[in-house]
Amino acid sequence: MDENLAHSLEIKIDLLQRRIVELNEQRAETERQIVNFKELLRNYRIVLEAEQGVGINQTVSAMQIIDSIVGDKTKKTTLGNRKKPHTLKWAIDQALAGSPEPMSTMEVAEFISQMYPEIANASRNLLHSIEAQIWRELKHHVYERVDKGRYKLKTRVGEQREENDQQ
Asked: At a CB cut-off of 8 Å and minimum separation 6, what does 141 contact?
């Protein structure tokens, strides 16, 4: 009985592995076709641009459709021109820098929720994440604890001297 069960399981596993290989080959072929199609669209876009330069009127919608499918590949993405997403630390810095008075973590959370909802939505528990980030930055002397639960950006040495000179 156990041999029959083991044999039938081996057969099923073998069939599943063959199916997986078959599906992976189909996926690879589909990806190759997509790459070829996009290359054709890029070439068509180049022809359209050349015809527009010569004076033959083409509809702009064809160019927009091609760009939406292929994307504009003429601009290479480099480290210099890639837009970097904002982080929670950056948003906390913005909140504390924009406030003349120290802020509580709840006020910082409200500010981030209103001004940067994409950052707020990326966090499971925004208030906890803000508290953890503030505590990390307190260790690095970026923020200063003014009162219980109230924080501000720590003034730099140069800024501190200017404030003392003005007084």
From this structure: 154
Task: Quickly name the fold that domain 88-157 has.
Answer: Arc Repressor Mutant, subunit A (1.10.10)
- Report in angstroms the alpha-carbon separations of 143 from 50, 69, 102, 148: 56, 46, 10, 13
pTM assigned to the model: 0.45
User: What amino acid is encoded at 35 in this protein?
Assistant: V
**Nearest by Cα to 37 from 69, 75, 73:** 69
And the tokens for 43? 């070439």
Going from N- to C-terminal start, the domains of the chain cover 2-70, 88-157
If one counts every other C-beta atom within 10 angstroms of the C-beta of residue 155, the result is 12
Lay out the sheet containing 143-147: strands in order across: 103-104, 150-153, 143-147
Q: Consecutive 10-residue runs of the chain (167 residues): their mean pLDDT?
A: 88 92 92 88 79 58 67 50 71 87 92 89 90 89 87 67 50
Q: What is the pLDDT of residue 100?
A: 86
